[in-house]
Structure formats: structure tokens, C-alpha cells
Design brief:
Helix content is 62%, strand content 5%. By secondary structure, it is mostly helical. A hairpin with a 2-residue loop joins strand 1 and strand 2. The longest helix is centred in the C-terminal third of the chain and has 26 residues.
Length: 266
């Protein structure tokens, strides 16, 4: 893909995004907006306008019209196999039980039915982020490391312990692994539609299964009128924080194996 983006463009995009997120965080304001149901997180949408140049329109059209990896439904295994392995392991070691969450029907079961709507509400921001990352990846020879680093920079302010917020090691680990997953998919499969589905579904299915106390994640991935969800299953507190990092790590391994089989590693 012919790419004429300059490194300075990426630097400006990252710096502006970080600056805006820090300002909002300092004043204890949300780093996202919800408009007509659609979710827009700053880290996903702010960098996109920086690449909207006339000489990039052809590349953007190519990304939209001709995604490279088109094997139908195969990437879904990257979403469901890790979760299945975790559930089976927790059951074998008797570390899990069926929960009794509040809003079981209003939030839990309805979220399953409303999955297409939640995904649609997130798709525009995922699309913008995916296009941005695909276009910037060729700027460096170490494509995966470069893209991973940029993703971490764009999102890290969400986890900085500013004010009363405490540093959460497990969330930061999840961010690093998520960044690596996105970079792998972009490098070897370059399908923005599957990328959007996979990234959204990994977090959506984890939160729905095990719950979350993060209003930001609940508002973005689910309904805006709930601040927490207890999950369909209960696990001990010392295991709960490990579930998402482990799920993401298994996903990264599966994607790496698929990339090797694809025989496109450079």
C-alpha cells in the first residue's frame, strides 16, 4: 500500500489525544461521548482526522473495499476458544459458580439479544481507529512493535493514577496484550471488519460473563444507564483480576499460530 503519511503527523495525533485525555481526566470528566447511541472514545477517534488527507483517500477506500483476510467465521475462534478454556478450567478446579446478578433480565439476557446494536454503536469508532492504525503501520520496519507502542500511548492515560484513581496493574497488562493483538491482526490479516468484531467481542463477552465495576466499559460496551454488572458467573476475588489478561494472552497465542500458518510473516 502506497503510504505518504509523515511521522510528524503521527506524533501530532498522539500528543493531541494524550493532551485532551489528560485535561478531561484532571477535571474528572469522561473521556468519551455518546451521541444518538454511538460511542466515541477520544483515544479511538481523535487520531483519525489527522490522516484525512487527499492523498490518503485512495488508501482508505482500498482498506474499506478490499480487506485482505476474508475467511468467513474463522476469526470467531479467537473470541470463543479462550473464554471456553477459562470456564472449563475454573469448573475443573471448582473456582466458579453460577451467579445471581441484579438486573439479570434487564441487563444480562437483554445484552445478548442486543449484541448487534451494541456493536453497531461502537463500529464507527472502531472503524476510525482501525484505518488510522493500518495506515501508520508501514512507517516502521518493526510494524508490530511500532503499532503496539502507538496504541499504548493513545490509551495509557485512561489508566494513569490521577487524583483518587489507583494504579491497576492487571488493567495495564490487559492494555499491553490488547495492543499486541490489534497489531498482529493489522499486520497479518488487515481486515478492519473482523478486527472491529474481535476487539469488541473479546471485551464484551468477558464483561458479560464475569462482570465489571468500570462505568466507562459498561457505558461503552453495553447500556449507558448502568454503571456496573456482576456477571453471569462468580469467581473468587483473587482470580477475577487475572481472567481478562489470561483470556487476552490465549487470544494472542491463537492469532500468532494463525499468522504462522498463513505464512506471511516477514
Amino acid at each position: 500500500m502506497n503510504n505518504k503519511l509523515k511521522f510528524s503527523t503521527i506524533v501530532y495525533a498522539v500528543l493531541v489525544t494524550i493532551f485532551l485525555e489528560l485535561i478531561l481526566k484532571y477535571f474528572n470528566l469522561d473521556s468519551y461521548i455518546i451521541f444518538a447511541g454511538f460511542r466515541f472514545h477520544l483515544s479511538l477517534v481523535v487520531p483519525f482526522p489527522f490522516i484525512l488527507k487527499f492523498d490518503q483517500l485512495k488508501n482508505i477506500k482500498k482498506i474499506l473495499r478490499n480487506p485482505i483476510y476474508n475467511k468467513t467465521f474463522q476469526p470467531l475462534k479467537w473470541v470463543f476458544i479462550p473464554l471456553a478454556l477459562i470456564l472449563i478450567s475454573l469448573y475443573i478446579f471448582k473456582k466458579i459458580k453460577i451467579g445471581d446478578p441484579d438486573y439479570f433480565y434487564e441487563f444480562g439476557l437483554s445484552s445478548i439479544i442486543d449484541y448487534p446494536i451494541y456493536f453497531l454503536w461502537n463500529f464507527p469508532q472502531l472503524l476510525m481507529a482501525s484505518i488510522f492504525l493500518i495506515l501508520i503501520q508501514p512507517l516502521f520496519k518493526s510494524h508490530i512493535l511500532f503499532t503496539t507502542f502507538i496504541i499504548i500511548l493513545l490509551c495509557i492515560t485512561e489508566y494513569l493514577p490521577i487524583g483518587a484513581q489507583k494504579f491497576d496493574f492487571y488493567n495495564v497488562v490487559s492494555l499491553f496484550i490488547s495492543a499486541a493483538i490489534i497489531s498482529l491482526i493489522i499486520k497479518y490479516f488487515q481486515n478492519i471488519y473482523w478486527l472491529s468484531i474481535i476487539i469488541f467481542s473479546i471485551f464484551w463477552i468477558n464483561l458479560l460473563t464475569f462482570g465489571s465495576q468500570s462505568p466507562t466499559l459498561i457505558h461503552i460496551l453495553f447500556a449507558a444507564n448502568y454503571n456496573s454488572w456482576e456477571g453471569f458467573f462468580e469467581v473468587s476475588k483473587n482470580i477475577f483480576n487475572l481472567l481478562l489478561p489470561i483470556q487476552l494472552a490465549i487470544t494472542a497465542i491463537l492469532i500468532s499460530i494463525s499468522a504462522i500458518k498463513k505464512k506471511t510473516i516477514i
